[in-house]
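tl;dr need the bound structure. longer version: we got a ligand (magnesium ion) that a collaborator sent over and nobodys looked at where it sits. i said id run it. heres the input, straight from their email, havent touched it
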Amino acid sequence: MGQVFENANHASVVLEIIEAIHENASYLSEIDGATGDGDHGVNMNKGFMMAKDRIEEGMDFAEALKILGRTLVMDIGGSMGPIYGTMFSKLNKTLKKEEKITKEVFLEALENARDGLMDLAGAQLGDKTLVDTIYPACEEYKKAMEEGKNFGECLGAMSEGAERGKENTKNLVAKLGRAARLGERSRGFLDAGATSCCIILKTMAASMQKRLSEE
Ligand SMILES: [Mg+2]
C-alpha cells in the first residue's frame, strides 16, 4: 500500500497552516497593497485565527479542515472568505470518508478543491489569481504520482508546482478583482491570493510529509 496519512489526530496539520498564515499576515497585506487595497493579510489572519480557537489538537484532519472552511465562509468578508472556505470544504468532503488517506485519494481531494475554486471564482489559468498556484500544484502532484513516486515525493512535487505558479503571477496581467483595474500595470507584482495559496499548500505538504506512515 505504501505511504498513507492517517486522518485521526492530525488536526495539527491545519493548525500549522493557520500559524503560517498568521506569521505571513503583514507580508500578504504588503503584496496586496501593491495592486489592491492591502487588506489580504489582515482578513486572512482574522479568519484563520478565529478557526484556531475552534480546532483542537486531537481532532481528525478532515474535521479541522471543515471547521476552517466553515469559519472562513461564515465569518470573514470579502471575496477570500468564500473562496478559501470552498477550498477547505472540498478537501474535507473528499477526505472525511477515509481513515487512511492514500496519495490517490489526496489527488482526488486536491482536484476537487481546484475545480471548486475555479467554479466559484470564475477564474481560469493565467488570470493572476490563486488558481495560478493550485493548478500547477495539482499538475505536478499528478505527474509525480504517474511516475510512481511515493506520497511524500508527490507532496514535494505539489510544493514545487505551487511555488513556480505563484512566482509566475509576476509575469501576468490581472483579469479579475481589484487589481484588474490596473491592467498592464499589474504586471511585475505577485498576486496576493496566489501567494497565500502557496503558503497554504507548501505548509500542508511539509506538515503531512512529517506525519506519513508506512502500511
Ligand atoms: Mg484586498
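gonna send this back to them w/ a short note. The chain has a mean pLDDT of 95.
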